[in-house]
Amino acid sequence: MEQGTFRVKAGLAEMLKGGVIMDVTTPEQAKIAEAAGACAVMALERVPADIRAAGGVARMADPTVIQRIMDAVTIPVMAKARIGHFVEAQILESLGVDYIDESEVLTPADDKFHIDKNKFQVPFVCGAKNLGEALRRIAEGAAMIRTKGEPGTGNVVEAVKHIRMVNSEIRLLQNLPDDEVAAFAKNIAAPLELVKETKKLGRLPVVNFAAGGIATPADAALMMQLGCDGIFVGSGIFKSGDPAKRAKAIVAATTYYNDPKVLAEVSKDLGEPMVGIEISTIPEAQRMQERGW
Amino acid sequence: MKIGVLALQGAFREHRWTLERCGAEAIEIRRPDELDDVAGLVIPGGESTTIGKMMVDWGLMDKIKARYAQGMALYGTCAGMILLCREIIGSDQPRLGLMDAVVRRNAFGRQRESFEADLYVPEFGAEPVRAVFIRAPYIEQVGPQVAVMAKVNEKIVIARQDKILVTAFHPELTQDDRIHQYFIQMAADKA
Questions:
Q1: A180 burial level (CB within 10 Å; 0-12, 13-18, 19+)
Q2: What ipTM does this complex have?
Q3: Could you tell me which of A147, A154, A159 has the C-alpha nearest to residue A238?
Q4: What is the CATH number of the domain that holds B121?
Q5: What is the least distance, in Å, from the CA of A212 to any CA of chain B?
Q6: pLDDT tens, residue by residue, B66-118
Q7: CB of A154 within 8 A of CB of A179?
Q8: Which of B7, B50, B173 minimises the CB distance to A11?
Q9: What domain range is B135 assigned to?
Q10: Count of domains in chain B?
Q11: What is the pTM of this model?
């Protein structure tokens, strides 16, 4: 019997596919998410929009908050650690969370290195805005990737940019002759073996979700049609007028992403969406997507 | 041979690929009418609460039961196994409940307790099955019509009742196609 193998870690991400992972800050929100059909929840002290508003240093949530959410639901529970903060990750692993998000939503704890995720039994998900970044994270042990987008904005444009970038780099790679692959790997600063595997598969070697700015059922379906395997919704649900209804609608849109009639139906009467932020109004130094190396 | 894969949420893509490797025509099922001409249906791993609710919301629960009554074979992995069992310990979530068995969710523990192991299953030959268990359930009790095919630590992880097959683990995450071949044969044996 073997535990913590890469197949077991990546396997949970495979099971989350086609589903919606929702940010929650209380056991009550976790129950609303579960009842709406979330395939997992992300336990946080504050959703990204509030982290953005609060400023200062954002850290791992209080273990009490995480534990109460774990006790409230039967679906998998994820939690965030700061980039490079392997002790926060050790604490989250000891709590028994099902996935750790080494996340740019929190303030990075290391300005050069990410967590050595291969050392852990618990699987990790990491953000990426291009193929090189995705493959560097996988080399460090990430068993799941997500787009970074721009968290807490309710603006999907950056997530779209990131999935399109990854897709176009993979298409380019697939059309390269074998003798040009090593130079391609060098250019995107990714390990050659993972670049070769990506070329062979024609996709990332692990599951790739959308995250960062998804606020409506149409946003979720857009990311699915662009080739994402599933959806993270951060602030988009519990910062909206009717969280339970919106959550359920986004779940339906993630399954029926190719069916505009269903999308029209579930998009009706959802109440106020979260207030969005135009990306150009965010100073570059405050853009979370620039965090990560 | 046309086999459906319930594609509401979870690892349906891997089941489709495995069925295709076995020579079956695999189609993704999201609407009740898509079940009309399949000989069998795979219910994949994923979140059983998510899949069960969507089955109710999108009219698939009754349709699957009706097609089963007409002879359609069913294979559930992990969440699919939970949804096929009559009783789910500590839960009133929606289910098909067609197999006379009592199942426990997340029975081996959380993700850190997930594991892979070799299983010896007489029906599948001398070569062991590499079984990947992810927050997996197991069956605690079965009725007289249910045949137990394999156990891990005395917990039931493969069972069959007539035209229903269930596994607590994920053969679709490996390259071993024997269980899917066995299921395709079950679906073919109907008529």
A1: exposed
A2: 0.96
A3: A154
A4: 3.40.50.880
A5: 21
A6: 999 999 999 999 999 999 999 999 999 999 999 999 999 999 999 999 999 99
A7: no
A8: B173
A9: 2-190
A10: 1
A11: 0.97
